[in-house]
Amino acid sequence: MSEVRRRSVESCGGKSDERADEGRIGDGLARDEGRLFVGGYFETAGGEARAGLAALDAGTGALLPWSLAIDAATGTPTVGSMVFADGLLYISGAFTTVGGALRRNIAVIDTATATVTPFANPTISYVLRLRVTSNRVYVVGQCEVPGNPAGV
Fold first, then answer.
1. CB 92 within 8 A of CB 28
2. Cα(101)–Cα(44) distance, rounded to whole angstroms?
3. CA dihedral in degrees (93, 95, 101, 106; nearest 10)?
4. Which of 29, 34, 66, 116 has an alpha carbon within 20 to 30 A of 58's alpha carbon?
5. What gap in Å lies between CA 49 and CA 43, rounded to an integer?
6. What global pTM score does this model have?
7. What digits encode the pLDDT tens for the residues 66-89?
8. Exposed, middle or buried: residue 108 (CB in 10 Å: 0-12, 13-18, 19+)?
């Protein structure tokens, strides 16, 4: 994980420390067939552009060439939670597009091809956690669901 170049500001009372150019890795870790996917608040990994999501060799920690562009409307995109299931990587965080597709704060990625699936998600304001079973995706957070203005 030392390969992940970090970028953030640690704030405590409005002050930042000397590590302002370092980032944070959140709960976003998922392992698949020798790869470790790392999500968090960062813009680079191993000197390469990898905003919010990077793939590392699970044995060596070396950055892999696997990459998918993640963007946010403002600031650095963040991947905070992820789950790997059946060849798909489910990610959530603070972002607006993944792989050029509009995906507000939640997306499903085919890791074999580094492409975004046509997963139709509700409007997600904030995601705390993801869970995946054989036929369901559970999202814990604030969702804007028609007919339920208070969210889920």
1. no
2. 21
3. 20
4. 116
5. 6
6. 0.74
7. 999 999 988 889 898 888 888 889
8. buried
